[in-house]
COMM domain-containing protein 6 (Donacobius atricapilla), 187 residues
Amino acid sequence: AADKIRLIPQDFFAELCEQIIQHLNHKIPGVNTAELCQRIQTSRVDINIDDLAKIANALSFLFSTAARNNLSTEELITTLGSGVSPLPKHAVQVIRHVWNEQGKAIAVSEDAGNMATVGQFVDMKWKLGVAMSSDTCRSLKYPYVTVTLTVADPAGQITDKSFEMTIPQFKNFFRQFKEMASVLETV
């Protein structure tokens, strides 16, 4: 991971660290590594989304472990220096700054940790479509609904999950959402 961190410009690395801290503080649902990776690649840095996701997971583990052990900034930096593969100087400076400014605010609550193990719903988009024809059928005229759910996994990685439903399936889906809403109103 240290080799890949060397590739990331300091401003992008700082943004990644700050988003991870915000995620750990439950201020944002997760880190959008796909969007950040695209911006890094636009600045002519050769990094792929899998490598960026691994770096984000490692930093998330680093910050959450440091919070759980109540490490000071100097203890964290000393711990980083004792690793097998040293981090680049710009990365250590960013980690020092971010931890010094925002690290102590990380809430280390057992309930919050247990709640986050299944991921978090971020957004939902849907669209109505009609399949007009296919290779095997000239005239379908088949309506369907495409739903895209944006979710943050427990590590904070934001991903989109898409699926299609027939109109009867969508009506059932909608009915279940109405039932959930009515139950939530009673709480």
Remarks:
- The radius of gyration is 22 Å.
- The helical segments are 2-7, 10-24, 33-42, 49-68, 73-81, 89-102, 110-115, 167-186.
- The mean pLDDT is 83.
